Amino acid sequence: MTGSTILETTNLNLWYGQKHALIDISIRIPKNRVTALIGPSGCGKSTLLRCFNRMNDLIDSSSVTGEIRFNGNDIHDPRADVYAIREKIGMVFQKPNPFPKSIYENVAYGPRIHGMREKGTLDRIVEESLKGAALWDEVKDRLHEPALSLSGGQQQRLCIARCLAVEPEAILMDEPCSALDPIATAKIEDLIIQIAREHTVVIVTHNMQQAARASDYTGFMYLGRLVEFDKTTKIFEDPGEELTENYITGRFG
Ligand SMILES: Nc1ncnc2c1ncn2[C@@H]1O[C@H](COP(=O)(O)OP(=O)(O)OP(=O)(O)O)[C@@H](O)[C@H]1O
């Protein structure tokens, strides 16, 4: 694989209580590319995604063995700052979840909690982040209106702008289009490709056309294992494993 690796797991295992949800996963996520995680329901896609910024820490029953490195550093090192990790590795969820605040305040929230008070700088960050999320033109005249007055697709782009405002290196997206119509979905897919010029994107999707259209690399998971990981074109045109081929040709799933 060419290019550098930003996130890497080695023999990663995760349990929810007795349930062995991730089994010996070793994967290298390339920097500034889009990686899609696909596979049937319950195979562990979201669990793997949440491992990358330690969101599974929030689930009491979960325990992990193996290693996860971000830019070469072990994210489970006792000296690692989990809040800094989640800032550098942002997350966008299935259902848009803007705060019940104005459009402006949603984007300014992150920089503000880092002590940014200067209005001119905040205004600039808000504008750049909304432009980065392809939302600026639609909201520039209504920045102080409630975020919840936006459409679902706009709310999802606002959540992406909120991530961008704290200058992440990577953004994890867990089925970000599943609640959206096809037009809003197409906008988010275009945006994902655009964002990946300067950020790493890892996206969980049930939609194989979406993985094929928007990602550079694809990992196929099955029953907690990573069956195959390769360039998206390879996975879809010439998969190395029969299981992958059966899944992408719709023989099960
Ligand atoms: N908080 C939890 N507690 C216990 N088990 C869980 C928890 N979250 C997920 N699991 C189990 O872990 C396994 C993997 O779940 P995960 O949500 O990662 O799969 P997925 O591939 O993302 O599924 P889907 O495509 O349906 O969202 C499943 O068997 C699921 O039931």
From TrEMBL:
Keywords: ATP-binding, Nucleotide-binding, Transport
GO biological process: phosphate ion transmembrane transport
Keyword ATP-binding applies: yes
Superkingdom field: Archaea
Keyword Transport among record annotations: yes
Ranges where the ABC transporter domain occurs: 7-248
GO terms of molecular function: ATP binding; ATP hydrolysis activity; phosphate transmembrane transporter activity
Family annotation (PROSITE patterns): ABC_TRANSPORTER_1, ABC_TRANSPORTER_2
Gene Ontology, cellular component aspect: membrane
CDD domains, sorted: ABC_PstB_phosphate_transporter
SMART domains: AAA (SM00382)
PANTHER family given in the database record: ABC TRANSPORTER I FAMILY MEMBER 17
Listed NCBIfam families: 3a0107s01c2
Protein name in UniProt: Phosphate ABC transporter ATP-binding protein, PhoT family
